[in-house]
Write a structure and sequence with these properties.
Number of strands: 11
Helix content: 25-40%
CATH class of the largest domain: Alpha Beta
Radius of gyration: 20 Å
Structural class: alpha+beta
CATH topology of the largest domain: Phosphoribosyl-aminoimidazole Synthetase, Chain A, domain 2
Strand order of the largest sheet: 7-9-6-10-8-11
CATH architecture of the largest domain: Alpha-Beta Complex
Shape: globular
Number of helices: 11
Strand content: 15-25%
Distance between the termini: 15 Å
CATH superfamily of the largest domain: PurM-like C-terminal domain
Length: 334
């Protein structure tokens, strides 16, 4: 991934990748004093730990990121809780697990009951959309460390070990079905805010105030994907498209590439960011979801049936491409 505009905005993805690699060097050396319970290797969307010979516990943790800066600027906190839930449960379902619960962690300079009440509204709405519970969490007052609000969650779910979806069953020719995003979701906001800083948040060139467009909550795909998993379709891979866009398909455990020949429509907000920030098309696709928030890879023979299930939740869902024997991700026009 090139850093270009994103690096100029203050985020170096290459540095982040290097830092994660350095962290993992130590974590790989953990000796729990017993046989490891990890059911799948690192690098997937969620981790799975063996509970017994039959069941696994899926876990994922993530936060809302610098979208919170925009929420603070607008004085609106009632939607970011949805983002927090979404960023976690959307990863848990990628291993075929059904999310059960999430714990939240909120760091603030000092506690404000009114702000917490609004954050709680979003967490509740997100939990109901994902059909999970939030049985607890932590509120930390860290005035010496933070000067804003940070919101993070950790979600867990259950999955039968023989039903874990890793992508290893994907074959060339399998269909890739795309589910539309609701907008930027919760990635790339440092670049987006930098690119759009000269446009007032009440500007309505996109049909709604820009601030509302940018605060649109991350879509929660749990109900659609769980219904697909319970159907007769042969589901071979599930990918939550965050930073990295369609290249997130390469996180699936499959020795294949992907040809995206019929991508979903790109919402206007992305074109505005590219124009205002002079961001190349290549970098836009590296940083943002570009209108596709989740992909389901299914056996070619089941493409129509799987699409029908998903269209019950997302009428605009459709086959956007297929797995190929060549490596990498190729997009139409790329």
């Amino acid at each position: 991934m090139s850093d270009d505009a994103y690096a100029r905005a203050g985020v170096s993805q290459s540095a982040a990748d290097e830092a994660v690699g350095a962290l993992l060097e130590s974590l790989r050396r953990i000796d729990p004093g017993r046989e490891s319970l990890q059911a799948i290797g690192p690098g997937h969307y969620a981790s799975v730990m063996r509970l017994d010979d039959r069941r696994g516990l899926a876990m994922s943790t993530d936060g809302v990121g610098t979208k919170l800066v925009l929420a603070e600027r607008m004085g609106r906190w009632d939607t970011v809780g949805i983002d927090c839930v979404a960023m976690n449960v959307n990863d848990v379902i990628c291993v075929g697990a059904e999310p059960l619960a999430m714990l939240d962690y909120i760091a603030v300079p000092s506690a404000d009951p009114d702000v917490m009440r609004e954050v709680g509204k979003g967490l509740r709405r997100g939990a109901e959309l994902a059909r999970i519970e939030i049985p607890g969490g932590e509120l930390a007052q860290l005035g010496e460390i933070v000067n804003g609000l940070d919101l993070v969650g950790t979600s867990i779910g259950l999955v039968d070990l023989d039903a874990v979806v890793t992508g290893s069953a994907i074959e060339a020719g399998d269909a890739v079905i795309g589910l539309p995003s609701s907008g930027l979701h919760s990635n790339g906001y440092t670049l987006a805010r930098t690119a759009l800083e000269s446009i007032p948040l009440d500007d309505e060139r996109l049909g709604h105030p820009l601030g509302e467009v940018l605060l649109e909550p991350t879509e929660i795909y749990v109900r659609a994907v769980i219904e697909l998993l319970r159907s007769e379709a042969d589901v071979r891979g599930l990918a939550h498209l965050t930073s990295g866009g369609l290249d997130n398909l390469l996180r699936l455990d499959a020795d294949v590439g992907y040809e995206i020949d019929d991508p979903l429509p790109v919402p206007e907000i992305f074109a505005l960011i590219a124009e205002q920030g002079s961001v190349s098309d290549e970098e836009m696709h590296e940083v943002f979801n570009m209108g596709c928030g989740f992909c389901c890879v299914v056996a070619a023979a089941d493409a129509d049936a799987a699409t029908a299930v998903l269209r019950g939740h997302y009428p605009d869902a459709r086959r956007i491409g297929s797995a190929t024997s060549a490596g990498g991700v190729r997009r139409a026009g790329r």
